[in-house]
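Objective 1b. Sequence-to-structure analysis of beta-galactosidase.
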Amino acid sequence: MNRLTDDPRWLPAMSERVTRMVQRDRNHPSVIIWSLGNESGHGANHDALYRWIKSVDPSRPVQYEGGGADTTATDIICPMYARVDEDQPFPAVPKWSIKKWLSLPGETRPLILCEYAHAMGNSLGGFAKYWQAFRQYPRLQGGFVWDWVDQSLIKYDENGNPWSAYGGDFGDTPNDRQFCMNGLVFADRTPHPALTEAKHQQQFFQFRLSGQTIEVTSEYLFRHSDNELLHWMVALDGKPLASGEVPLDVAPQGKQLIELPELPQPESAGQLWLTVRVVQPNATAWSEAGHISAWQQWRLAENLSVTLPAASHAIPHLTTSEMDFCIELGNKRWQFNRQSGFLSQMWIGDKKQLLTPLRDQFTRAPLDNDIGVSEATRIDPNAWVERWKAAGHYQAEAALLQCTADTLADAVLITTAHAWQHQGKTLFISRKTYRIDGSGQMAITVDVEVASDTPHPARIGLNCQLAQVAERVNWLGLGPQENYPDRLTAACFDRWDLPLSDMYTPYVFPSENGLRCGTRELNYGPHQWRGDFQFNISRYSQQQLMETSHRHLLHAEEGTWLNIDGFHMGIGGDDSWSPSVSAGIPAERRSLPLPVGLVSKNNNNRAGHVCPYFA
């Protein structure tokens, strides 16, 4: 790439562009840095233009990323997609971690990432670690997320209905497919869930809790807080116990200490959380009254408590046949297929509850970050999706190892074990117990062992197609927006209630979406799940999401698809062309448990609310 920029015959063309830019824009106060261009290597022509700009405008820095991001033609170390702690020692031009770059011998320049956090599809995982580094090291001065808006165009089908088109939809060959669908907002400016994460990490007020004291730090450089109230609330499993409000009076770069009253210590079991939010009571030129500009949440220490199960004199009845184990209790029945080892059906009265058995699940519909640059005609073997395919994760079949039933004093216990295999090789061993007691609760424990020589799975969990289509989903956990293990700092622990349609995120290129982490309770239709899990729920199966190229081609399937995960890999986002998604399972721990309890109810009266903190 240096051939043209080292060729003096190209200096006039390059000079023409740079000199006219400076002469045109030098009186604009919004222009704070000059750039010598984009991705053009580095040569003598750049050095000459750098010297010219510094001679005519010494007041502004010059930045240029080409040639390694730290050449003599830039005042700022300005890499693209450098990672926080991981070096990328490419042979021609190494790309160091942003922390290492600061420590190179003789290096004193600041570092600003001219592009980072590639927001393609379901992405922006790991964004928080960048901002932790920015706040820790003064010479790390931020970066520019790539980028703001999905670059799709509207086309119309044969019935005149609009749909979002991307590369290849215009007869263009070759093309970059959905590569330009990389914004924090959709093309119509509807926010991606990732925008909430970006907003939260970049908020101007930071908080620290020490005992009963909240320390509020302002990151404004010039503005004194004059339109902010700090609301605080303590809640147990989403139920408010105490709250208050304090005016903020913080100088630029200053701090304010807020002493809270004695906080409640409830005796009942549950998670106790303190949530603070900064509210602007008055409208501004850019925001409405009541706008929330910052928030934070901490889990508080809880008293130990034991909730004894209600005494029940009922005992489930077990019937054994050649094909099935059937358990009955009142108007409820559970059926386990002895040939497959799966829970094949549940009834409440005469209504079937399942359209598919409850099965293990280890895969997800690939994200853009899982696919990377891999294409059907040019496979990248390093891409996560190609590793999963090559290992047989998508084709694995269950071989039944054990399926037994035992009648206990007050319950029925089903024990199963499966080996998930591909081409004779065992990839996963899944052991489950189902304990159905006299209250009608089914306690499920799942323990999965992952083969040491197979790639980390995308998820470890359970999957089924429920027969019902309920209007709303109610859960106690992180929300309200979609969140993933490496993109959840903006999620709030509370009790949420949303329409089923809002549990799906309409990425133009369909993929895994809609996960909610840190869930303690999920209510949907006549069912309640309790435990410590992650879930997503929608009308679209993972299979359909995998096989569909555009969101407008998806069709709502019968019933509702539910995924309950004990583990889900992060989504990544350092870039979208190399495996930036961390596996998430420690190498020494390839066995993961998933405890979850399922209660089938005759109705669901659990109340929830739409988030008061992020509206």
